[in-house]
Fold this sequence. Notes:
The structure is a single chain. By secondary structure, the protein is an alpha+beta fold. The protein is 15% helix and 37% strand. It has 4 helices and 20 strands. It has a 5-stranded antiparallel beta sheet with strand order 3-2-1-4-5, with no helix packed on it. It has a 5-stranded antiparallel beta sheet with strand order 8-7-6-9-10, with no helix packed on it. α1 (225-242) crosses α3 (266-278). The radius of gyration is 26 Å and the shape is elongated.
Amino acid sequence: MIKLGDYNTLKILRHTDPGIYLEGDETTGDILLPKRYVTPEMHDGDEVQVFVYLDQEERIIATTETPFAKVNEFACLEVAWTNQYGAFLNWGLMKDLFCPFREQKQRMQRGKRYVVYVKIDEASHRLMATAKVEKYLTVPYTAMPSQPDDQPAEAQLLLKHGQPCDCLVWQKTDLGFKTIVDNKYQGQLYDNQLFQPLHSGDRLTAYIDHVRQDGKIDLTLQPTGRRQTLDFAEVLLRYLYENDGRCNLGDNSPAELISDRFQVSKKTFKRAIGDLYRRRLITITDDGIQLVSIQEEDC
C-alpha cells in the first residue's frame, strides 16, 4: 500500500520522456518520478526509495527530495506565501504545504516560522499542515493488561528518568519553553535550568527529568544524576588542563558566574568539584580550585 506523505520503496517499471514510472497500488496506479530526479543508476526493475506526495494539480507524484517533515510529524516551517484560503509553508519540496485558516491558531504571516503538524485531511484526502498541534500529542503512558481478578489496569510509564530524547522547541511561556518530545509528547524546559538561548523551531537533545500525572514532561538540557556529574567533571578537568591548572570559581562562587562560564547550574558545578576532589585530581583553594599536579610542581 502506498503511503502518501511518506517514504516508499517502489519498483521502476519503465522510462519515458517525462521521467520514470514506479509501481503503485490499485488506488494510485503507476506513479511518476519526474525526469529531474532520474539518475543514470536507475534501471527498469530496480527499486528506489522516494517520497510520495501530491503535485500542483493534486496528482500523486514521487520525488527523491527530502521534506522537512512527513505525515504524522511536527516541524517548524516558514510561510512562503499566503492567499485568501490560507498559508503555504516551505517544507523542502517543489510544492508548498497548505495550512488553511481553520487550522491556524493565529493568522500566519509570510516569512515567519510556525510549529505545525503534517497530516492528511480526512475530508479531501490532501496533505496539509495544522498549527493546532496539541490535539496530536499523546501522553507517555500505556495501559497494563487487565488482571485475572478484573482489577483495574495500571498505567505503565513509557519514559525513564534521565533518558535522552529528541526535543523540538515549540513556544515560549512564562515558565520557559513548551516542547514536543520524540514527536509524541508535550514537554517543558524551565527558564531557571536554561544555560543557552532557545528559539521556537530549535531541535536538540534533552533529558527526562520528571513525568507529571497529567502526562506532561519536565525536561533538562543536561544529563541527570551521576551521569551529569561525571560528564561535567570531565569538562571541568579539561578546562583546568587548558588554563594552567587553575579555575577561580569554587563552591562559594555566584551561580551566575558559574552559569556564564560553564553553562551548568551551581549544583552540578559543586558535584563535579566533589567528584574530582575525591579522585584526588584537584585541591580546593581560597580563590577556586587547582589541579594537584600543577600545585605539586609549584611547591
